[in-house]
Amino acid sequence: MRRRADARRLEILSAAARVFRRCGYADTSMREIAAEADLSSGNLYHYFSGKHELLFFCQDRALARMHSALESARDSGTSVLEQTRSVIESHVRCMLDEFEGATAHLQVEALPEELRQQIIEKRDAYEQAIRQLIVNGVEQGEFAACDARLVTRAILGAANWTAMWFRPEGEQSANDVAIALAGYLVNGLIYGGELSVPRTRAAIS
Amino acid sequence: MRRRADARRLEILSAAARVFRRCGYADTSMREIAAEADLSSGNLYHYFSGKHELLFFCQDRALARMHSALESARDSGTSVLEQTRSVIESHVRCMLDEFEGATAHLQVEALPEELRQQIIEKRDAYEQAIRQLIVNGVEQGEFAACDARLVTRAILGAANWTAMWFRPEGEQSANDVAIALAGYLVNGLIYGGELSVPRTRAAIS
Prior knowledge:
Two copies of one chain form a homodimer. Chain A is mostly helical. The first copy, chain A, has two domains: 1-48, Arc Repressor Mutant, subunit A (Orthogonal Bundle), CATH 1.10.10.60; 51-196, Tetracycline Repressor, domain 2, CATH 1.10.357. Chain A is 71% helix and 0% strand. Chain A is built from nine helices and no strands. In chain A, helix 5 (80-96) runs parallel beside helix 8, helix 5 (80-96) runs antiparallel to helix 9 (174-190) and helix 8 packs antiparallel against helix 9. Chain A is elongated, with a radius of gyration of 19 Å. Chain A starts with a helix and ends in a 15-residue tail after the last helix.
């Protein structure tokens, strides 16, 4: 019974993520989510108290998946470079697979304060862990010296942005995008020439 | 007279961009924009017919600035690498300077269809021009072989994402961020090792 209810909740979360993605969080009603999940509205409220709760669990699930990919990478015993590559690839797949993670990961400002705070803390911990990976890579000589905080945000920005342009009906699969993007972003970490040291100069534009 | 009216319109656009940024486009009223621009509501309508028009001109201006930085870079006679670096730096400065470009550049979906189409066309042309820059770099041997479309989107994603995390009161200026980010993103283009060729492999996560 318990297991069946859990499976049902997961199905509902997937359905909610699809509708959020299609119509935008603000324009989605519980009625539409119920229809997508093949439930009556009353039955939907039996599982989730409202849209906020659904968005919260979507985000929580996406973040749990990202954290777990990060832990697997760290435990893999491979080089920091391969760990970083694997984390980026997993992040992109999580953003694009079934188009679920994206809404989940991006619309955090739609949550009420208390729920938002929980998500932001997990997101910060995730960002912090990636940053530590990059610091380790620099310390172990695998990566060129860099501003690890900024580079982490660049990586997450490029990875999150895929949700804005990826089309599942396009030529590249989510996995193709994940691999190519991670390849490019990892390249930027290992190049150790003069270019990796930012020059100070006056603004041009 | 004409010049004074143009200057006034620019001041109003700046004021509108500040309010959009602070309160979000959806939650901003013409009355608030008028207050920020130190005008009466009636006077504001003398210059702009409504919020849509203000958002359109904000976006149009940000894109014009980005296009013009791109043309300056192309005309500079420097290496493709330096042109690319300069374009990325200018893009980030445009996103972060006075916090104007950001709202302008990101909220395109809030525009009515006809206006949105004009902005999307200019944005596509801009993306296409950056892609061409990267293709040139590869053809001329300055950059490693890469998927130019994907790399362009990675660059724009990382650059646009700065608006999500940059705080003007923080340690780094907009220009610091622009230089460091461009340095990292350009590094990824020049590394020519095995890593720049995406490997095909099964998804892990």
